[in-house]
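In the previous chapter we treated chains in isolation. Here, by contrast, the input contains two separate entities that must be folded as one system, with a combined length of 604 residues.
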Amino acid sequence: MTVPLLAEQATIGYGRKAVCERLDVEVPEGEFTVIIGPNACGKSTLLKALARMLKPTDGHVLLDGEDIHSRPTRTVARRLGLLPQSPIAPDGITVADLVARGRYPHQGILRQWSAADERVVAEAMDATDVADLAARGVDELSGGQRQRVWIAMVLAQQTPLLLLDEPTTFLDITHQLEVMDLCGRLHREGRTLVAVLHDLNQAARYATHLIAMREGAIVAEGPPDEIVTADVVEKVFDLPCRIIDDPETATPLVIPRAGARTGR
Amino acid sequence: MSTATATSTSAPQRARRVTGLLALTAALVVLAALSVALGARAMSMGEVWAGLADTASDAYPVVTELRLPRTALGLAAGAALGLSGALMQAMTRNPLADPGLLGVNTGAAAAVVSAVHFLGLSTFGATLGFAWLGAAAAAVACYLIAGAAAATPARLALAGAAVTAAGLAYVSAIQILDTATLEQMRFWSVGSLVNAHNVPLGIVVGLIAAAAAAGVLLSRPLNALALGDASATGLGVDPRVLRIAGIAVITVLAGTATAACGPIVFVGLVVPHIVRAYTGPDQNWVLPYSALGGAAFMLAADVLGRVAARPAELQVGIVCAVVGGPFFLYLINRRKVARL
C-alpha cells in the first residue's frame, strides 16, 4: 500500500496550544478516508495540517515522501486540492468564473488561459452536475448547488488527492447525501479523498478507511466494518449503542441505545 | 500583461470589458485636454494651442510649465491611488479599504512633515524616502491595531480612522508650531496638484509606473485570495507572502503620490467600487481599470476645483473628500457590504 500523504510524530495546534501531540497518521492511496470524532477532538486541525494550512510545531507532514512545507506551495497545489469549511465567494462571481479559479496552480505569468484550461473547467462542471448553472451568480444558488460548485472548483485543480473539511455541515439531509454521493463517485474514479465528517452513519456508509479521534489522539483506524463497533463508538463518543447492518448498503449502522444517556 | 486572456469569461463579456477600457482611455484623453485648457487664467482654445506649440506666445510658460506638469502629476497620482485602493481592498477582502482611510497617506504625510520640520529637508527626493517609511509604518500599524488576521472590515476601518486622526493631528501640530513649514506646505497638506512644477515628474511617473506594473502582476494570486485564505492556500498561494508584496507595492504607490500631492482620501475607495460594478470581481480587470479610473477621477476633481471657485481654486484633496464622503456613507449604510 502506498501512502502519498502522512503525518509523522506531528504536534499540531494554534499558537502555543497543541491540539494533537505526536500524531502518526497515514492517508492510504486510492481510499476514501473519513476522519470522525466528537467536537474539538482535533479532526479539522489534523486536516488543516495535512493540507499545509497549519505547520506542525514538531514532527512533519510528508507528501510523496517529502516535507510538505519544503516544497513550493504551487507544486503542492497540483498534487493536493482542498475544500475548506467556509470558503468565500466574491460578490457577483459566476459559477464558471469561480470554477476557473481552480486553474491557478497550472497557470503562470507566461502560461495564459488556454483551451485545455477551458476543457478542464467544463469537465469539472459536468462531473459535479453544475454545467447548467455556469452563467449563474454563485450567490443565487442553494446551499447544495453552491457546495457542488466549490467541489468543481477544487476538481478543476486536477489533483489526485482531495481534502474536504466538513463538506456537508451546512446542508440539509438530501444535499448532504448528494455531496457524499459525489465524493463516492470521485473516489471510485480513482482519487484519494480525505474528509472530516460529523455524521457517523454517513462516514460508515461512504468511507473505505476510517480514522476515529478523541482528544487529539487516534482511537482506531481501518475499514468501517472493522472499526465501527459498539466498543469503539462508546470510547470515541461516550455513546452507548448497538450496531446493525444498514439495510440499504450492509455497512455498519449506529443505533444509539434508548434512555442510556439519562442520569449521566 | 495578464489581462485579456487570463479568464474563462464568455466572448460578449470580454468585449464589454474591452469596450469599457477603450471608453475609459478616451475619457482620460478628454479630461487631460480639459486640464490643460482650463485654469485660473481664462484662455481661448487658440491661446492654449499657441501655448503648446509656440514658444514665443504669452501662454507658453503657463501651459508648459504649469498646466502640463499638473496634468501629468494628476494622472500619475490618481492612477497610483486608484490602484492602491483596489489592491488594498483585494488584499484585505475589505470593501472599506483605501490608502486614505486606512491612514497610509496620512502616515506618509506625517513622515514628510517631520522630515521638513526636524531635519530641514526640502527636496522632493529627500522627503520621498520618508513618505515611503511613513506609509509602510501606518499600513502595518493599522493592520496590527485592527487585530491582524482577525481584522473585520469594521475593525480595520476604525483602526484606520484612529491612525488617520492621529496622523492629521500630528501634521497640524507641526504646522502650527512651525509657520515656515506651514507656508511651504499649506496646499500640500490638504492634497493639491498646484506644486506639480516643483516635483521631479520623471521620477514620480517612473516609480508609479513600475509599482503599478508590479501591482497588476498580483491580480491572479489576488483572485485566489478572494476565495478566502484557506482556499488560497489550497490553490498554492501563500497569503502572508502575497500580503507583504501587496503592502510593498501600496507603499510605493501611495507614498509617492502623497509625497508629490499631499494626503488625498477617497480616490482609492470610490474608484474600485465603481469599477467592480462594471467589470465584476475578476482582479485581472479590476486592477487596470482602477488605475485608469483613479487617474480620471483625480483629473476630473482637479478640473472641477479650478472651475468651481474661479478665480481662486479648490484644492483637489478637498474636492475628492466632498465627492467621496457621501459615497463612503452610502457604502457603510448599505445593508450588506459587498464581500470581495
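Chain A is about 30% helix and 25% strand. The two ends of chain A are 43 Å apart (CA to CA). Compare these points with the single-chain example from earlier in the chapter.
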